[in-house]
Each structure stands twice: as C-alpha cells, then as structure tokens.
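Human:
Take a look at this sequence-structure pair and walk me through the tokens.
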Amino acid sequence: MKKLFYTAFTGILAISLLYSCQTTPPAAKNKSFIDTTTMDRAIKPGEDFFSYVNGGWVKKTIIPATESEAGAGLDLYNRTKDNLHRILDSVSGGGFAKGSMEQKVGDFYASGMDSANIEKLDYEPLKPALQEIDAIKSPAGVMPFVAHQMTEGNNVLVGAGIMPDDKNSAYNIAIFSQYGLGLPDRDYYFKTDPSTLEIVKAYQTYIRQTAILTGDDSVTASKKAMLVYALEKQLAGSHRTNVELRDPQANYNKMALTDLNRNMPAIGWTRFFNSIGFKTDSVNIQQPAFYTRLNQLLLSKPVDDWKAYLRFHLVNDAANDLSSPFVNAKFEFSKTLTGRKQIKPRWERIYQSTDANLGDLLGELYVKKYFTADAKKRMLDLVNNLQVAFEARINKLDWMSDSTKKIAIDKLHGFIKKIGYPDKWRDYSKVTIDRNRYFDNLVSCAKNEYRYHLNKLGKPVDKTEWGLTAPTINAYYNPSFNEIVFPAGILQSPFFDPSADDAINYGGIGMVIGHEMTHGFDDEGAQYDKDGNLKNWWSREDNDKFKAKTKMVIDQYNRFTVLDTLHVNGALTTGENIADFGGLNIAYDAFKMTPEGRDTTKIDGLTPDQRFFLSFAQMWRSKYKNEITRQYINIDPHSPAIYRVNGPLMHFEPFYRAFNVQQGDKMFVPEKDRIKIW
C-alpha cells in the first residue's frame, strides 16, 4: 500500500470540484489563497523554491513540545482533531441505545478517559498473560504462547496477516513477514554513530524500566534488558533492509506447510496453524530468512531469554493503555526517536485509540456531520479529469512502445476509485463496549479485528474494503486492488478549497491525485498488472528504458543532503519520488485543460502558472526536529518535504518559464539531463 502522508494525521471536511469547463468561482476573486507572509523573498525561486515559498514561516515557527514536526499537515490535523473531539464529547455522555454506534464510540472514549480506574488497575490486565509466560518450561512453549496472543489480536514475535495473493489477486492468502524488533528498523542494531547509540541506550533503559514496573529488582531488570536486546539483535540480522523490502518479487515466497515443517521444525507450523485457525496448506513467507533464524534461535536460546523477551514485548505493546508509569516510561524512550518533549493530552491519545479500534464507527459519525454525497461526486469528477490527463501523457511518451502503452492505459482505466468513505461500513456487532472497562474494550476490538481478517483466508478478495478510516488525512495506491483511495480527511485545505481558483486546487489535491495514480506505474507498482497480479506486462526494451530512468531518480536523490552529511536514501524513496514527478506533471496538464490554466489573467499580481506552483509548494510546508528527520531517513519511503518540492521542479520546464529560472541557479538542470518518466 502506498501512502502519501504519515498516518498520524486524521481529518474531516467537505470538498468541491472545479470542472474543466467551469470558470473561477466568484469567491476566489476576493481571496488570494497564497499566503505571502510565509515567503522569503530574499531567496530566488530558482535557488531553492521550497524556501522561497516557505522560508519565512520556517524561520519564525517553533515546533510545539508535543510534536516532532510542524506544518500544513499539522495545521490540518489540529483543525480535524478538534472537530472529532466535539463528536466524541457529544456521544460520550451516555444515554444511547445499547449496541448503537453512538453508544460504542461514546462509551469506548469515556472508558479511555476514565484515568482514575486505569491508574487503579495498574498492569493488572496483563497479569494472566504474564503468568502464562512464567509457566513456559522450555523454548517449545514459546510458539504456543505466541499463537494464543495472536488470537487475542496481539502479534508478538511473528508478523502474520491475510492479504490478496500477489500472483492470484482474486483470492486471499496467509502471509508471514519478518517481525519481532522493538526499534524502528534492523539498522538501529548495527549502526555505531552517536545518535543511533543514544537511541539504543534509551531503548535498553526502557526495557529495564518495564521489568522493574512489573516486579523485578534492578539487577534482574538490567540482566533481562541485555538478554532482550541481544535476542532482538540476532533476529535483526535476518531482517531484510527497507530497500530490499521494496522488491515484490523477492518478497513473494509461497511455501507448502509440509515444507515449512521439514525445514523449520522447531516452530511447529502445523500446531501453530491449528492454534490460530489458519486452515490452509500453503502460505507466503515473505522473508524466509527471518523464520529460518527464528527456528535456529528456538533451538539454541535458553528458555529464560525467551521469557524475558515475551514479557517485555507484551508489556511494551500494551504500555500506552496501562497506568501512567508505563505510559511515561514509553514516552521517555520515544523522545530520543521523535524529539517530542511533552506527551499529548489524554483526550487526544484516546481519540487516536478510538479511531484505531472503532474506525468505521467514528468515520460514519464524522461523515454524517462533515462530508456529503455531493462532495464525493465532485471529487470523483476531479479524479476522472486527472485520469484523462494521464492517458494523454502516456500516449505522448517518446520512450515507450505502442504495445506497452496500450497495456498501461488499460491499467489506468482499471483503477478502482474510492472517495471520501466506504460504500459499506465495517460490522462491529460482535464488539462489546463497557464504559467502565477500557482494557477489556481494547481486547474485544482486537479479537473482532482478528476474526474479521481470519474469515477472509482462502476466500475471494473484497475490493470494496478500505485500508484507512474516513477521517484520515492520507491517500494511497494499493497495487493488489489497483485502486486509488482518498479519504475524506485529506479533501480539505490546503489540499482543496471549494472557493479557490483552479491553480490552487490543481497544485494541491490535483498533485495528490496524480501522485497516487503514478504509484501504479512506479518501480514497484509497475510490476503489477491491471488486475493486481504480480506479473510482467512490459516489453524487454521498454522495461530496460524504465529502469534506466528510475536509476536517474535514485542518483539525483542520493545527492540531496539533510542534517549536514546525512543523505536522502534514493533507493528507499524511489517509488515516492517517481510518484512526485508524475503527480506534478499530470496535475499541471489537467490544470492546463481548465479555462484559468489556458488564460494569463493575474490574481494578486501572480500568473495562473505561478499560483499553481506556489500552491504546490505551500502544501508541503513543514519543519522537523532533527530526531524525527533521522528516523524518517532510515525508514520512511518519502523524501523530506524540501526535496518533494525542489526535486520534481528541477526537471519541469513550465516551472522554469513561470519563475524565469536561468542557468547558474542552483535548481537549474540542463534540458538534456532532465528526468522525464510519466
């Protein structure tokens, strides 16, 4: 699944569409929509366009203590969360019919806000599972415990799920992926730079603290922390890198149950499958090396190591839902990763928990209040307009053969388009919510989620299913469904404003739409056909040309630096960078189909093209703390915001014309060296 923004952002608002045959709305005549106070006019546009547009804001902005970043996305999230806060307050007072969405959402939120009861319970809800761990007599007892936890909706050690079969996308298959680490990525266990070592030290301190909080003395806790970290490091050595995880062919390894039992007997696959309800004779082991290593460690590591590992991960997974000592211990560790200095208020944390556990119920309440069927229709019309522009671009490509173009256009027309909210909401009838029992509510939701996914195993794929909740400020392309998805949360300013002129909306939401469309044709998405199957549909010559262009993108982004000597990882960010290139191109072409796009009339002294590019750059306005920047460079497939703006523009002739970019400017690239893919 591809994501344009980070899933921490969620939101709401109705939107509108400016059709290609429309004129600029009257309201736009009296509003510029370009915030000139954020600009730094001392910087030439061709030197650093991101800073020209956003530099004034960057200089004066202080990132809030509760955040690791600030910007247009956070502004939208804050407006959205306040609206959702009002919804939650309105339903949390009680008095609704038992089983209604208002009762479940309201009582769930109320139970999470009952801090007095949560403090009183401390870690009591975990004691039965901790006793199960204490009762394990040998490493052979590890996987039965892991299986039991999985049926409770809690993945420990093993990453498993039900997804479309990459090579038979009409049916769901069980998948197992590498898992088991407490740090964000395998490389944290092997890097030796000062910032990474500081994070490792804080993590080990956190492991030790959880052991003390659950009854160990300081000496025992310190010993357990070293055992847990050492075991994780050995697991990490088997993990593929984030770049390697971007190869869908390498991560498709369908294996028979009989082969798993023969090759990895210590895991006890048949018993494990029976325990978790997986009725199947084959699964996709996405990263086999991890399970080979797990099998070896189950044979070689003493049971006390495993018990320490299981205890920590059980507590860590539940820490934010326990009493304040656990919440604070986890937050203290997170500071080294995110740069946040202050924990978010309780209501915001419980709102996020509500969205995570009862997402479609909260989403349905949101849609009723903040999003209309008419807005959904208008957005679909805009998506269709971008689709027309993309088809025209494919037809004009000078590097692709006609036969491959035809297949590419068939895939483009095969996009499933999901706008705003699902046509079919999730069923939560088996979830029991008690306003006095927060942890039990979480367990009930988790069990329901597990049953929901388990029921899909071996059955036809339901392509009406959504991967995000309606209020989420995000968008994605899913290659297995060949779908583009735009939740209602992202369909608001700064991405879209119904009263704005065409330049603003096409530079904003138009670019987002084009970005997600291009994901179907980035270095990963292009490996899937129109039906979502992992299947080559390219001619050899066209594929070679595409790979050569992809390498040019990688090489360019590898040259971009962040925090002095830290570089963007061009290979990790390839797909998102290609999508940014394509999104800009497609959105601009669609904009030129509008009357304003074909006109030269200025608004506030700015040409339509200038407003398009200014809107594009303002959309990515952001500022990050160094800690989160380092983490993003390690694990995030998106480039930093400055390069999401400047990178594509360096290769885009209309930008050169709009701002008179000349040879000698830092962003100038000779025409012969400019990257042109989609």
Residues 410 and 530 are 7 Å apart (CA to CA). Confidence is low (pLDDT under 50) at residues 1-30. The chain has 26 helices and eleven strands. The longest helix spans residues 373-396.
